[in-house]
DNA sequence: CCAATTGTTTGACATTCATCTAACGGTGTC
DNA sequence: GACACCGTTAGATGAATGTCAAACAATTGG
């Protein structure tokens, strides 16, 4: 069973979050998942014109910046924005970025 | 008389803004000026351990992303966050980023 | 006009980063 | 156990970027 640890948001800086969001693909991913509901990774990466590998790289970057987490189900993974935690750590940020 | 044109915020994307803010120095600059009040450029760059040239580069980047504008007074320039315009174009963003 | 001051630009350099292909690693299924 | 499937990792590559030193430009003042 593979593990995909996420950082404690207390250790995540605004700078790291903004850096992660400063890429068009990653911003689009976060916007797509902004409601906090999990979605199959395959569904996400198929929306873009990049390869699976590139998308996996972006997923990892977003996870490292505390923005998303994975739910593993057998072979497939769901990805999900840590909306509630983010709203507590960085109030208003996700909403502003998504343009809610 | 040198001109320093700023983009119309209607033409500025969230992506461009986040990219500009994704650098630690630029984020610090915006936070320092977030209230929208002008400050001498010299006062700003002296707060950092970078050279004048590097700071001028960051100023230009922030200006190009629509985040700041300059007020020229003879030899010296004031720099200022376009707070009101930004708040209208990207509601809540500056406040969230600054951690108001 | 000349010199000092303030800020920008240029060119170089090292680093970071997004991207791809190819190979690898778990997981479920037959 | 063998194979197909889903996703990650490794390595390579080219582009973008932050940084600095040095040269340049505009302005003020003597």
From TrEMBL, chains A, B:
Organism phylogeny: Bacteria, Bacillati, Actinomycetota, Actinomycetes, Micrococcales
Keyword DNA-binding tagged: yes
PANTHER family the UniProt entry points to: TRANSCRIPTIONAL REGULATOR, ARSR FAMILY, TRANSCRIPTIONAL REGULATORY PROTEIN
Official protein name in the record: Helix-turn-helix transcriptional regulator
Species in which this protein is naturally found: Phycicoccus sonneratiae
Every HTH arsR-type domain range: 6-100
Superkingdom to which the source organism belongs: Bacteria
Keywords: DNA-binding, Transcription, Transcription regulation
């Amino acid at each position: 069973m593979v593990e995909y640890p996420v950082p404690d948001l207390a250790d995540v800086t605004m700078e790291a979050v903004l850096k992660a969001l400063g890429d068009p693909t990653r911003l689009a991913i976060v916007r797509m998942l902004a409601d906090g509901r999990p979605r199959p990774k395959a569904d996400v990466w198929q929306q873009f014109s990049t390869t699976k590998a590139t998308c996996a790289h972006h997923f990892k970057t977003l996870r490292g910046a505390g923005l998303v987490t994975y739910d593993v189900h057998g072979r497939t993974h769901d990805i999900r924005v840590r909306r509630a935690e983010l709203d507590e750590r960085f109030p208003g940020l996700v909403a502003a970025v998504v343009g809610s």
